[in-house]
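Hi all, long-time lurker, first post. I run a small reading group and we've been trying to get comfortable going from sequence to structure in the token notation. Rather than ask abstract questions, I figured I'd post a concrete chain and ask someone more experienced to write out its structure so we can walk through it together at our next meeting. Sequence below, copied exactly:
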Amino acid sequence: MTITLLQHTSLEVCASAIRTCWQSFDKSDGGGEKDKELIDRVGNKFKHASTLEHLVYTFYIKGISRALLQELARHRMASLSVKSTRYTLKELKKEEPFDYKDIKRANKYLVMTGVELVDEMSIKALENLRIVLAQGVSNDKAKYCLPESYMTELTYTINARSLQNFITLRSDKSALWEIQELAKKLYNELPEEHRYLFSIKSYES
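-- Answer (accepted) --
Happy to help. Here is the structure in token form:
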């Protein structure tokens, strides 16, 4: 799994939005310590969390499973543009048959769990999908054979308020193991000056 931060809103924009309420623009220090303290005080301590929605982050997320993609869909206050199976399954058509022990080659397409039986069954499902595609079945029909472990990638845009909720819920040890990893990597990819808004000590690495 790899995460790349493509763009983000400056703290100055968020502080300016907050200062709109009191017309206190003259007190801004251009996104410096005064503005950072204001954002934390109003958005976090005073729970006016709607002000944090002015901070927006866009990430490119690569190498997650479709099982994890389903989990992401439960966080509705975000925008997802996902790699299309309609247009991209052709990447599998030219592959040689997969043996269920062929983990190294299958790694290109599947997220492995480390549980031998599960991973072997995922590879068998991958081979079934390859066979269906090789028989000329359209991608729209063939994708019904996709294993949950099949890799995908997406552009993901989310505001700070929603990202706080995501990291809080999905960094919990009871969350799906793969989404715990995603939460950590999203946090680590944030600009350093923004991380103070997402105060999870265990995620500071």
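A couple of things your group might point at:
Residues 86-149 form one domain.
The chain has two domains: 2-80+152-199, 86-149.
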